[in-house]
Amino acid sequence: MKKTFKSRSSADTFNFGLAWGKELSGGEIILLSGILGVGKTVFARGVAKALKVKNKITSPTFNIFRVYDCQLSGKKKGKLYHFDCYRLRKYQELVNLGFEEIIKDKNSVVLLEWPERFLKKHWEKNFLPRRVNISLDKEGTRTIKVK
After folding, report:
1. Predicted model pTM
2. Any idea which architecture 3-146 has in CATH?
3. Which of 30, 82, 103, 140 is deepest in the core (most CB within 10 A)?
4. Which pLDDT score is estimated for 73?
5. Are 64 and 87 in contact (CB under 8 A)?
6. What CA–CA distance (Å, rounded) separates 135 from 101?
7. CA–CA separation, 130 and 21 (whole Å)
8. Where are the domains of the chain?
């Protein structure tokens, strides 16, 4: 389902992630794109809130990824994996972290920031991820596009 949303604040971005995250039932891979500081992690916090994650969501830039217990739709227990690929140079580095096993888990939701670092279109065809792109205009308004 394609959606476009105009965010005028961090609260708007968080709330859009919250509303959108309520649709997730497990097995989803979400690719988050946008420039540094545009609100990818804020969006991820909203998704995490929708999935009833109790921990504070912080950017996984230095850890590469963080995993949280969550509750998927239908009150099913699952895991939320939040990856940040900014510091990775090759896809194999992600594979070495167990990424390919994680994305096969139907009781998980994967949020992956900076996918453009190395994920190619052939990969997307195999795993059918959803794309969320956040862009910033001159007035400071963010446009969030979900594909």
Report:
1. 0.91
2. 3-Layer(aba) Sandwich (3.40)
3. 82
4. 83
5. yes
6. 31
7. 12
8. 3-146
Helix/strand/coil for 139: coil
Give dist(CA 46, CA 15) in Å, integer.
6
The position carrying tokens 């990969």 is: 123
Q: Return the amino acid letter for 144.
A: I
At position 10, the amino acid (one-letter code) is S
| Sequence-ordered strand ranges (E) for the chain | 3-7, 28-33, 65-72, 76-84, 108-113, 130-136, 142-146
Predicted local confidence at residue 129, as pLDDT? 81
Q: Mean pLDDT by 10-residue block, N- to C-terminus, for the chain (147 residues)? A: 88 96 92 94 96 92 92 91 90 88 94 82 66 92 93
Per DSSP, helices labelled H in 22-120 are: 40-50, 91-96, 99-102
The DSSP letter of residue 100 is H
Amino acid identity, position 79: K
